[in-house]
């Protein structure tokens, strides 16, 4: 029994030193991380959101997609603009060829053209330079409209992506603060557990308590040290996620400036659900995106339906010096102008190909309409669920705060009863466990409440901006 009591006292003393050492190490780490020369970036939630606009790769990718769509729109607007070719052509023929009358003759000839055009001097000669335009009038009329709608759709998708990135950054940052706070709770609980384990061991050594109780109390510091390590791991993972979203270098360490979860109060308790739903349906960028795609599909269908009656136009004009002669010597060079105009209508596969493409465009139009209806239902459900969660968590926060206050008071009273020799350390241990449960519940509830407001705010079509 004596050896057991000595072991209990040694374990309790070692755990006390461990707790104090860990607390000192944590404080020293915070002090070191505050040094800007160590590659540490102090950051708060508002700064993280600002950096998301500047550094997030998804935002940058969508920015380039908008630039790509803008370039495609510019190309579509130039479909009716002629193409200028400046250069020359050289043609050399030796051997037999067939005349228009059908006679086959042996010919040896050469020709050359230089200037704004190419000499279309015979069958098989190709124009190499000049001013040429082959216009599908239907495309020239409707493709700029389609490209404009497609660009609007890409811009709306870029806005929706930015909104989601801001939510992701805010979520990752709040999770980082949450894990840091959990680590501090674990450290505080470890100190309390070591204190109670030491008291329990002293009671057992003095014969006023059971060695079994001392052994049970000695387990708690070990468990809280394990929880502290797990919380530290989650903190590192959360910091890595924030760094990934903000595209920071591996050497940069993030140091949140807030010691507590920042208060996020976006919605009042008396918000009208129907008005929120109406705002979401009007303001969501996803709705704008589908409206633009629907407009593009309508323009595409119109082009397919009426493009059959709009002619294709081919116009080529060339001007320059042309010369040629039998043999290999170019002679008789003089100025030449050529103008060719071609106007035609085209029926693909006797018109059945045109009809099939028209049905394809109609199906695409109906598909986008159904997707818009599906999005409408999803937005309504998202806002309703988000609204219910915000209202519920607003009340849960109040109860969680009350629970922490009562649990802290209960632990204090149990701790005082031990020194007044009216209570046992194990009773205080139970009170401590209740306090920790209440603190972790409050922390999770506060974070969930902030995130619920952020997500509902974004679900209404608003970008997250906590500086307004």
Description:
By secondary structure, the protein is an alpha+beta fold. The chain folds into two domains: 2-78 and 142-298 and 357-459, Outer membrane efflux proteins (OEP); 83-141 and 310-348. Helices cover 65% and strands 15% of the residues. It has nine helices and eight strands. The strands form two sheets. Strands 2, 3, 4, 5, 7 and 8 form a six-stranded antiparallel sheet that branches. A two-stranded parallel sheet has the order 1-6. A hairpin with a 5-residue loop joins β3 (87-98) and β4 (104-116). α4 (137-205) runs antiparallel to α7 and α7 (285-306) runs antiparallel to α8. The longest helix has 69 residues, at 137-205. It is elongated. Residues 1-37 and 117-128 have low confidence and may be disordered.
Beta-strand percentage? 5-15%
State the total count of DSSP E strands: 8
CATH superfamily of the largest domain: Outer membrane efflux proteins (OEP)
Unreliable runs: 1-37, 117-128
Give the averaged pLDDT, no decimals: 84
Largest sheet: 6 strands, antiparallel
CATH class of the largest domain: Mainly Alpha
